[in-house]
Specification:
The complex is a heterodimer of chains A (about 375) and B (about 375). With about 375 residues, chain A is an alpha/beta fold. Chain A has helices at about 25-40, 70-75, 85-100, 110-115, 140-145, 170-190, 200-210, 210-220, 250-260, 270-275, 280-290, 295-305, 315, 320-325; strands spanning about 15, 45-50, 80, 100-105, 120-125, 195-200, 235, 240-245, 310, 330-335, 340-345, 350. Classes of the chains: A alpha/beta (about 375), B alpha/beta (about 375).
Chain lengths: ~375, ~375
Amino acid sequence: MAATDDLPLQRFTIIEVNDAKVPLCLRLATSLAAKIAADLGANVLKIEPPGGDPVRREPPLLPQGESALFQFLNTSKRSLVLDLESGAGRATLADLLDKADAVLFEEPAPVAALLRASRATPVEIAAFPAGMDAAARPVSEFTILALGGLLHMVGEPERKPLRLGGHQASYAAGLTAFTGLAAALAARDAGQTAPDVRVSLAEVMQWVNWKAASGADASGISPGREGKFSEFQIVPCRDGHVAVVYTATQWPATRDLFGDPRLGDPKFATRAGRRLHIAKLYEIISPWFAGRTRTEIQKTAQAKGVPFGPIFSPAELLQTEQYVARSFLANMDHPTLGALRLPQLPVQWNGRSFAPRPAPALASELTA
Amino acid sequence: MSARPLARVRVLDFGLLTAGANTSAMLADLGADVIKIESGAYLDPFRVVGKPDNEDGWWNRSPQFRFTNRNKRGLALNLKDPEGQRIIRDLAKHCDVVVENFRRGVLDRAGLGYKDLSAANPRLVFAAISSQGDTGPERMNVSFGSTLDATSGIASLTGYEGEEPRISGMDVNYPDQIVSLFATGIVITAVMEARRTGQGAFLDFSQREVASFTLGEEILAASADPARPSGRRGNREEGVSQQDAYRCRDGRWIAVTLDTLDAALETFCAGHDSATAVAALLARGIAAAVCNDGSDLLRDTALQGVTLARDGRGGLVKGLPYRLGGKGIDIERAGPDLGQHTSEVLRELLGYDDAQLKKLAEAGVTSTTPAIGEV
């Protein structure tokens, strides 16, 4: 286990309150924000309902049956089960809050009033903006992607819109909540009154998708999914797929990679021309990809400054030379699950990484 | 009004496009004084890709630039000129944070890398945001937005069932958007440490790693079980009974997530307008929502929350991803014209006088017009 005595947030105490009943998409955001603080050394106490945080049972599952999702989102924390429907549970929580710097929780938590009134700075995670009066509206991460306009952006224009892989709505909100938490801690640290923080998944998705609003405002027409009409497409190659991506100024270098005289046709010389003749363009370049591997394609393109992106699966990322060289993936020795391998915080601080410590077992008593 | 969390923090901002420029914008949102550095020979590419016309002053009119750089002051200094470089080193003594997302080595070659600037100011927090990070065999690799959808793993999990992978594309460039949400919090943490210890830090962010970090549980599950099935499942999600987008009678798509299977849902949606279908599903306790586009987002001010704002010129700009102290953002300055605050900042921080400023302009060290037309 890594020493925590010289980690940047080690002098802060943070409480994460898990209600049993809130939508899971909110919990994932709360837990990610608190996990980042915990990996950075904060003393994070996760208050779980009797029976535990429901995420303990959520997929993907490890071969032993434990939740990989829970293990990833709760590294470096401690856990305590409290029944917040009982007076004794709430009294214990009030005592803990007295010594804490910040408290993270979701709307609508039955104990929200207690948490907001404590001397710890509240960081609230909600589905919808304050003032929308939608706290009771049924919600999922998928419907948040639809409301935020991100769903509209991926897929073929005539087919159904597609979600991005992973828990993008919850995790973008979790990263936001961490930054809000850091701002609140900085204010407290400087002796100022810290602002309370409220993060809604719907607002974070719209903020992330700002080019849709900007584009609609500038032209009156919203950007949307372009599929096979897009300049950037996915092309099959010998051992998988590659994303064809380049900027307007990188077109000559991109064109020259293929060595096909047909690409010298003036109709491909401008961005507008390439968009107009996009099917023909991809018909010409596709065979070049079919005969090459992802590694060959990336090396050849990068040598000319062309940013093609080979597509890797999560399993393949475990072997990626760059990730191995930077030790981005940490080996974590779990007391009951054995050796686990997972991403560390994506920052190196003076060359140092922040090794995560195993997520806590369900505990009814607090140990040091 | 109480002091904002980053009041009295000053940021030297070399950030370009979204990943860098938006990290410093988020620091400005929290009260930092952000000084954006460009040069006539190298504009923020958002000034160029978003230009609405080719008339004089086009470089000051890009909506994408205005969206991202509100509440900053703007300087234009030639970073290839030794005098421009000397001014940056002097400015760094008055700053707490540097944000940059140049290709690795660009600032080092100009004598403006972490080694040089931290020698002038050891308290400096230096955030280097790059495609692949500052170390490793791929550190010099270029990327552009969706390159990182591909290389991070997100694209491999995005797509129609059993079909090819998909990227978020140039109108989203998803990996560029999320890096600032994380990097800003880490910069604040490092500023706290610098206040406490007197020592700054070099923060090395890999955008690709930030994107892969959002697939943490997938990477963990794959490491424990290399045979675990992975790939594209459309809109379905492990552990969710039924989830998809359905087309309604009015032609609009709605997103629905169900805890129990409903084989009749597709027919139900096809027979009702989207608003009616969503209302009926919500009344049954089922999560449902219309698929909004950018125009819908502009219209629905309640849903917008604090994410959009207007600058002093009336232009639409980026708001906040969160509410702090119950409030959204006040736009105190529109995104700066090229070099708009060069003289103001050099007078204020370095005590330059009229004669010195005139000499810099005549020598081409400072400017207010671009030396280029494309980037």
